[in-house]
Amino acid sequence: AAMSRKGRKLLVDSLTRSAKHFTKSEVECLVKLFDTLVAKASSQFAGAGFDRTVFRDTLYNAFGMTDDVVLDRVFSTFDKDNTGCITVEEWVEGLAVLLRGTLEEKMKYCFAIYDLNGDGYISKEEMFQMLKHSLLIQPADEEPDEGVKDLVEIALKKMASTYLRVPFLLQDYDHDGKLSFTDFEKAVRDENLLLEAFGPCLPDIK
């Protein structure tokens, strides 16, 4: 149902406070875009939001994001209440992190993307799943998965190497092939390029 002018103003004011990184006029534009996307979606959510298909198409068209695993994980991080529907609050607040988030917010977001089973760790298996589509050219004399396994080992060594200088931080990195958020955060703070070590899940500057 169409929202009253007063209701929309209250919504925009509320989202401007909660999303933090957008101005009021930007929030107004994002709410209008949300309405357009809802109109494209199936009617199963009764106008409350839009589904995974519309979300994926939007991220593809706006940001060129094409990896199916990444797109599904981004959807899951936006869909905080796990209903299969992106509400206007989830839309604006999710984009606030995706587009304007602080390093801290982006670290939490990227870690959640890579932690496929939500257990608080990024395992070797999860790294493999995220990286297996990233090799454009596979060496002819290697099994298809060998190059990906090599990438996983390189990434783990790079993440682990930051701890060699600060031994007491090894408490959360026991070389079992898992990274905790503490491990990930320390590595990223030492080298910001590691933020998207297991696959591109943020828009580029363009």
UniProtKB/TrEMBL annotation:
SUPFAM superfamilies: EF-hand (SSF47473)
Entries under PROSITE patterns matching the protein: EF_HAND_1 (PS00018), EF_HAND_2 (PS50222)
Transmembrane regions: none
Keywords: Calcium, Metal-binding, Repeat
Pfam families: EF-hand_1, EF-hand_7
Annotated EF-hand domain residues: 66-101, 102-137
The UniProt record lists the keyword Repeat: yes
GO molecular function: calcium ion binding
The keyword Transmembrane helix is assigned to this record: no
CDD domains: EFh
Protein name listed in UniProt: EFCB1 protein
Native species: Motacilla alba
Name of the encoding gene: Efcab1
